[in-house]
Specification:
The protein is 32% helix and 25% strand. It is an alpha/beta fold. The protein has one domain: NagB/RpiA/CoA transferase-like (Rossmann fold). The longest helix is centred in the N-terminal third of the chain and has 17 residues.
Length: 205
């Protein structure tokens, strides 16, 4: 994919993601720590005015060297906890139940995104649990811009091709299209009922 095609998809993704109520931030590779800190500061100042803060996170392998405690720790005394690696999902959930309940922000990687709908896909595994994307009021995702696909169908096709190469499918794929919202009760729109009420994406090169 050429640089111009990547930029077109990135801009299309941003347009749809923001139309759904999400927030998009950009970073060149060397600027990712600065962009992440800026995105985090903007999100918590807007949606979580009280301090201190606690973050539960997991990152994609290409940015796993990021030290979130160093990047975010100075922002309102943020405490960062990495999602545990290995072990059964049941054991992890039991061990981390209280921690997750006391956390305000989840930061995760992302598998891919769809430009035509502003959708972001997360793949679940023991080392990339979905709970950090579900239980906290604010969810921030880190997305490699080269993983932005033209459509959801193209993203699922790429997922299938990659999974065949690896010899296994992910246990679960979560598609996020905007913050959690429902209008089930008397037709009144309520945001943040079944998941985070505020979502952001840091798109990096």
């Amino acid at each position: 994919m050429t640089e111009s095609q990547t930029e077109i998809l990135r801009n299309q993704f941003q347009r749809h993601f923001e139309a759904l109520g999400g927030h998009v931030f950009y970073a060149a590779d060397s600027e990712l720590p600065i962009a992440l800190a800026s995105a985090y500061q903007a999100m918590v100042d807007r949606y979580l005015p009280d301090s201190p803060l606690q973050v539960v996170y997991w990152l994609n392998s290409d940015v796993s060297a990021l030290n979130l405690e160093e990047i975010l720790g100075g922002i309102r005394r943020t405490r960062c906890m990495s999602w545990p690696q290995g072990g059964s999902q049941q054991a992890i959930q039991g061990r981390w139940q209280e921690l997750l309940a006391a956390s305000q922000v989840g930061i995760t990687g992302a598998a891919w995104a769809a430009a035509d709908t502003g959708t972001v896909a997360l793949c679940a595994s023991p080392s990339t649990g979905l709970l950090p994307s579900l239980l906290m009021p604010v969810h921030i995702m880190l997305l490699n811009q080269n993983q932005i696909q033209p459509s959801v169908s193209e993203g699922l096709k790429r997922l299938y091709q990659d999974s065949r190469k690896e010899g296994r499918m992910p246990p679960l794929v979560k598609l996020i299209t905007g913050p959690s919202m429902t209008a089930d009760i008397e037709g009144q729109l309520v945001i943040g009922v079944h998941g985070p009420g505020a979502i952001g994406v840091v798109v990096y090169d």
